[in-house]
Amino acid sequence: MNLIPKYLVACLGRYWLIHTDYWQTISNRVEVATPLNSWKRLIEGVYLYDHGINPYEGDSFHESPIMLILFHFLLKKVPYLLPVIFVLLDALTAHILYKASKSFIRIFKESQESGKGQIAEDSITMLVTESQLDEVPIYVLSMYLFNPYSFLNCAGMTTTVIQNLLLAVSLWGAASGHRALACVFIALATHQALYPILLVVPISILLANVNQGCNKCSYIRTLLGFVLCWGFCIFISAFIMDGSYDYIYNTYGFILTVPDLKPNIGLFWYFFTEMFEHFRLLFVCAFQINALALYVVPLTLRFHKEPVLLATVLIALSTIFRSYPCVGDVGFYLALLPLWKHLFSFMQQKFIVGCAFLITSALGPTVWHLWIYSGSANANFFFGVTLSFATAQIFLITDLLFAHIKREFTLKNGSSRQVDGKPAKLVLR
Amino acid sequence: MGLLSDPEYGSVKWVKVLKKINFPLCCLCYVGSILWFFTLAHPEFNNETYFSENALLPGLVRNEFNGEHSANKFFNEFIQELEDKYEDSNEMPVDWLVAKMSQLSLEVYTHNFSLNYPFGQGQTYKGTNVYGILRAPRTSSLEALVVTAPYRSLSNHQKGTAAGIALMLAFAQFARPQNYWAKDIIFLITEHEQLGMQAWLEAYHGLQQETSTFYTSLGSFWQTGFDFGKPPQIFEWLMTDHSKSLDPGVLKGRSGSIQAAINLEFHTPKFKYIEVKVEGLNGQLPNLDLVNLAHKLCVLSDIHHSYQNSFTWLRSRNNIDEWVYSIGTMLKMSAAQVTGVPNGNHGLFLPFGIDAITLEGRELNDPAGDPPRAQYLSTRNFYLLGITLERVLRSLNNLLERFHQSYFFYMLAATNRYISIGQYMPSLCLLCGAMLTRALCLWVTIQQDEEIEKRQDEKDKGLKEKKSEEILENTEEKADSEEKEPLIKDVIKPKEDVINTKEDEIKTNEEVVMAKEDEINAKKAAIKAKNDEIETKNGADLNISIVNVGCNYFLVHILGYAANCSPEYFNYIGTTYFDQTPEASIFYGLIALSVFYLFVTPFAFRFPTFEDLSMTNILLLIELATACLAIGMHNFPLGLLIAVLYTPLALLVGVVGDDCRKRSAIVLFLKRILCIILQPLFVVSIALILYSWVLFPEEGVLSKMSRGRDATMQGVMFSVVDSVIYGNWLFQVVTMVIFPTWILFWQILCNRVTY
């Protein structure tokens, strides 16, 4: 197994980073820590809870009560082990992603086999071969383990580490057909960050495909399972908070109404600092619909045959448009991209997107420093950089989708693209 | 969505065009960028400065400063005191200053600081700052202005600052009874030049010594763990900050947040003109409004003033003359910014978000050199200087909030002309654009090659399959014919035997056929295996390329980080084992390191392929472009200088093929020479040797060289020490960004691959 050195290197790297002087800087970076997931706020909330003060009464803590008692337990019992725990959880996420991608590959192979009949003759060579597919899980693993974004996320000890784990487990559960597992973990993830609710759609499709049988029954069962689990989470949380549901205002309410406008890599903060107060509700609704509901239906209609692609794209879109995104989320969906390695040759903006990712990642901290520490730049500079970062991500997603469509088309119609003897052009509308 | 349309149609065209014109295009960008930079100095292309902040209300007050007499008195007394008691010592007359300030009924404090010099044998320097706070009668010490002057002893080789200190005291005496101050004024006299200033600022802003670690962030939860839960010794060692050497101590008295600061450097009361110095740490600049304020108020007070190469008394109608002067000013300003070393105490305020400038009085025979026609200028005195200072401070007193209106990113072409960030950035962007274009071109080349390869592979596969099919057919035919042969024999043989033998033979034939089929199957399998092999090879190539490139890239940056950390160790080795000065040990250590890297790094890249090296080249170009942009945002001249130096190399370096033609060998050799010349340490050495060439033209070649070497040694040492004490980034940038990119260039040039 050549995986173990990879895990070792990645874990040691993360562990080392937590113990350097850079830890404080990393864990306070706006790119890494948002009001939702930062370590500082987590420990503050746990401290308040430990002293018998309801942490949801103030404005400092926005994690779910389940996380609160989990970390209360950990901080009380094994505070010195927390770096190890975070590192191991991240490694576990990577491993589960590895497992999940193996299942995804199996599904992909099956669908490729079954669809072989409809493929044009000269496109047969375009089919993905076994050996190519077998490498994919390793790529996914390495992409998660050595991605600087997930590296920083883990070193900053944000709760996004746990969020990623929950998402990974639910994806894995769905891919291997464990309905209960998928439902429980997607419910937990939703309970923590709300946006993973989008994933219910691809997961239920995936479960129906994997388990075969009555599709509608399967959808209903998944949905029911999810709703029950989520309800249970909400109830349990209320139970933890002594039967009071007030925490919802400070968790879901906080995510939805975006009261804390501390800059982050998302698109909300700048817009709402500039906003007149009485338009706020309208635009909050518009932005949240954009993040939560807008893309699910059209994408599901188009890509219901490819639930894995749908899941990837939905995770990515909710990461871009959510109210408090951080680089940990970006690192997670980037790790899923190697699943679509066979689409890379159809993608057109790889270079632009790559450059944009690199340049914005370097310029972001630069202009942040100029704005906050030197006082010479201002918010517009930072927003400009985050905006182009978001644009780059959107380009990546649309490019991926379009590449998929192009490949589908080419598989079906052959690689020569001619209409009446003239070269034709595919246009995405 | 035109961008997202299927680009295969027509894409070949732009790729071809790009490949054809990429080199001339990049060269054009390069030349264009440099031309753009120099064009900016022309009055047509830059703008007249203006006041953006309305609250400043410059020059609206009637001057009341009447302290010329007392300034002269303070000056004479101070000089007397220095000559009497501090003739030979470097110490600051703390008692005298405290006494004088107390007499003016300021709140006087002293501030002690110490420096554990990080290099050499670990000496400790101590120093004292004296400061007095004039509490504003109108508000409750929420905001403050700082007037500061460095103390220089009589034996100091630099110009003294006695007149500045005297003026400050006289101004404090004048300002004390006034009732219009809305901000505290802190009068600060610092010892040991910038060191004292840095210590005072750190103490004022309460910069903590220890950085918080994960374990300290646990707070009270920490106690609840088991005993073995304490971090092992190694972590404590890791957690302590070794780089911290300046102990700023504590301040006994503070005021509010500092809005602006004026640093005074006046040697004598009789000066010819004022030089306004703006360049700060890491090339940071104060808000243009403050700079403008100083210049405009000098005009109002009828004081000649200058900035770098721009002198107010030399105004020409001729645009070309103006242009040449402006170019001189811009280049001098860039030179001052590139090193990142502040050229006055004001520069240390800037990283704290406080705008500050230095006013330096200059007379004839100044160390900075005499400007043309300076001898015809009439000398100015304390009175004019005093009213200028009063005007500046009363304008600052009007400020409602910090400077934020005008530009922070600008270049000055003259005392009254500026170039904004939007105007100068294109010249840097053009250079970065050239590098990115080159990267795009390389990317497109690889893509096409890959596609061609794939197609060839597919063709090969197709051919092989055909061949294998042919083989199959052939063998089958053979088998058939063999089957037929015995049949013919059978006909000749007696009929009785026929049936049995026939059956037997058919059986054997069947066996033969079976065996043949097996063979064929085996062949098929072999062919399949071969195909698989080819596939896996393709896959493996791609795989290796990512791991190989990534590891190499990572390794090279680690090497850069090692170079960044090395001075501490070189200093230790040099001073203890070779009995050298820290300068020499660090300098020679870095040279040794460079030579080591020069010979070792080309082999660090194991078994590179064409794609590997191309990919490295692309990444390298993108990294360099990004780095130049990011550096240019902080310190434009530094970013531009790096881009100007390395863009030619970036455009010329390409993956070296295996073909050994003579012409290409010579070209390659020249490229390698260029690469070696552009090695960061080498560039610095050459630059400083040339500089000493210009500075001491009369000396012999060898002594010039040795002067250049000494200057380089000092320069490297300064950059290392500055990075440790003040947080100057130059050394870090060079070792951790420029050096790794250079190593990558070198690797690409030194590895030969087959296409």
Automatic annotation (TrEMBL), chain A:
Q: Which InterPro entries match?
A: PIG-U
Coiled coil regions in record:
none
The membrane topology of this protein is: Multi-pass membrane protein
- Pathway assignment: Glycolipid biosynthesis; glycosylphosphatidylinositol-anchor biosynthesis
What's any GO biological process attached to this entry? GPI anchor biosynthetic process
Question: From what superkingdom does this record's organism come?
Answer: Eukaryota
Any transmembrane segments, and where? Answer: 80-98, 193-210, 222-241, 247-272, 279-297, 309-339, 351-373, 379-402
Q: What is its main location?
A: endoplasmic reticulum
Q: Which family does it belong to?
A: Belongs to the PIGU family.
Q: What is this protein called?
A: Phosphatidylinositol glycan anchor biosynthesis class U protein
**Cell compartments where the protein resides:** Endoplasmic reticulum membrane
Q: Name one Pfam family in it.
A: PIG-U
The record lists the organism as Bicyclus anynana
Keywords attached to this entry: Endoplasmic reticulum, GPI-anchor biosynthesis, Membrane, Transmembrane, Transmembrane helix
Q: Does the UniProt entry include the keyword Membrane?
A: yes
Q: State a GO cellular component annotated for this protein.
A: GPI-anchor transamidase complex
TrEMBL record, chain B:
Q: What GO cellular component entries does it have? A: GPI-anchor transamidase complex
What organism is the protein native to?
A: Bicyclus anynana
Write down the InterPro entries for this protein, in alphabetical order. Answer: Gaa1
Which chain regions cross the lipid bilayer?
Answer: 21-41, 586-605, 617-634, 640-657, 669-696, 729-749
Region: Disordered; residue ranges are 454-485
Gene3D superfamilies listed in its UniProt record: Zn peptidases
Any matching Pfam family: Gaa1
Q: Name one GO biological process term.
A: attachment of GPI anchor to protein
- Keyword Zinc listed? The answer is no
Q: Where is the composition biased (Basic and acidic residues)?
A: 454-478
> Which keywords belong to this entry?
Membrane, Transmembrane, Transmembrane helix
What name does the UniProt record give this protein? Glycosylphosphatidylinositol anchor attachment 1 protein
Question: Transmembrane: is it a keyword of this entry?
Answer: yes
